[in-house]
Design goal:
- 21% of the residues lie in helices and 17% in strands.
- With 397 residues, the chain is an alpha/beta fold.
- The longest helix has 15 residues.
Length: 397
């Protein structure tokens, strides 16, 4: 949430800077850093650059760690010229519902020359694919969480064995990737177990894959410990509290603070049983009342009634949603959950279609980004709200 707004980069920097100047960086009770058994930083080089090494073709948005901002995907498909994207592979995602101005991306995907989706669902994105390759998933797949151990509040390691074997006609996603790579390069990929074993060997835990397999409930490696400057990867080995790119972005922040704030801005929300769009096709998770409601503070709901359907407009689109009047959101803020918008045709999501809701990202403006990082500004979209019978008249805010 902190990252997906116009000053996400500055916010992340200031959180760490505040911990540092108050003596709470790398200390118990403050901001600490895990030491994962499979450590993605084990092979990192001090002083290496992982940002802005290349940029998107149309808007020049910077890459980070080899990835380009998904906010640029639609324009990279739709804008003619050298380097225009004409083919796409998607893997287990639903960007039509999860990237800014999903309606524009929806149109862009429909015009691709070729699209392949590796996904168990025919959803709002994969319905555009010329070929869908459904992988084995869930209880058929072994699992080790490489990413989230780097954000953990305690050092642990766990390898989950599959409950059921896959059928002869099924393929794991890595086998599908391996098929692509072999056809394109003639080389074979390492298996996940081979990569996990190699990663554990480079870590400091001393664990092996056999150790994890012998511990189905996981291994507790203890509480977080101070680890700086050992894990610092700056060229000097020192902590840089005032990096030049961050300082250079401060005037942009000041200019925004000097402006008159928007009367009403939209933010997203995640719910325990509705973190992503795929969860909406699970009957057990969709029980109960409609959760795709737009929340408004009573101060912003003058002339509107709790439960009525209202129209929400932004610069790029408009949607309707039931109104929930609550003091759990502050004045000037509207709040809508993430991942809904299942009324588009051509899918096979029977449960999700019964709880279609509206897509937050049909309102999100792709031109609103964090200029420092290139990341999409999903939160803070300026909007107006209207009673549905007053469409075209003055907004209620």
């Amino acid at each position: 949430g902190l990252s997906i707004q116009e000053f996400g980069g500055l916010c992340q920097w200031l959180v760490n800077a505040l911990n540092a100047v108050t003596g709470h960086l790398d200390t118990e009770g403050g901001a600490m850093f895990p030491a994962p058994a499979f450590d993605l930083l084990a092979g990192a080089k001090a002083g290496a650059t992982h940002h802005g090494r290349h940029h998107t073709r149309v808007r020049g948005l910077p890459e980070f760690d080899g990835e380009l901002p998904n906010v640029a995907l639609a324009e990279e498909i739709l804008t003619p010229g050298e380097g225009q994207i004409r083919a796409l592979i998607t893997v287990a995602g639903n960007p039509v519902l999860s990237v800014p101005d999903g309606a524009a991306l929806d149109r862009a995907l429909s015009g691709l020359d070729f699209m392949v989706s590796i996904d168990p669902y025919l959803n709002e994105t994969t319905r555009h694919a010329h070929v869908i390759l459904p992988p084995a998933f869930g209880l058929e797949v072994p699992h080790y969480d490489v990413i989230f151990h780097h954000f953990a509040v305690r050092n642990t390691a766990r390898y989950s064995q599959p409950v059921f074997p896959i059928r002869p006609d099924q393929r794991f996603d890595y086998q599908i990737f391996d098929g692509f790579v072999q056809r394109l390069t003639g080389k074979a990929l390492a298996t996940p177990e081979q990569r996990l074993g190699a990663g554990l060997a480079h870590g400091r835990s001393g664990l092996t894959l056999d150790d994890l397999k012998a511990s189905p409930h996981g291994v507790d490696l203890g509480p977080l410990q101070p680890c700086l400057p050992g894990r610092l990867l700056t060229a000097t080995g020192e902590l840089h509290l005032a990096p030049a790119p961050m300082l250079a972005d401060l005037p942009r922040l000041q200019a925004t603070l000097d402006q008159t704030p928007e009367p009403l801005v939209l933010i997203g929300r995640r719910q325990l049983r509705s973190n992503n769009s795929w969860m909406h096709n699970t009957p057990r998770l969709m029980r109960g009342p409609d959760r795709c409601t737009v929340q408004l503070n009573p101060a912003d709901a003058q002339g509107l009634e709790h439960g009525q359907t209202i129209l929400i407009r932004s610069r790029v689109g408009e949607i309707t949603a039931p109104l929930e009047i609550t003091d759990t959101v502050m004045p000037g803020v509207a709040c809508l959950p993430h991942g809904f918008g299942h009324a588009r045709g051509g899918t096979r999501l029977s449960t999700a279609a019964q709880h279609a809701g509206a897509s937050l990202n049909d309102l999100t403006d792709p031109t609103r980004i964090d200029a420092l990082t290139g990341n999409a500004a999903v939160n803070g979209t300026p909007i107006t709200v209207h009673a549905t019978e007053q469409v075209g008249e003055s907004a209620a805010d």
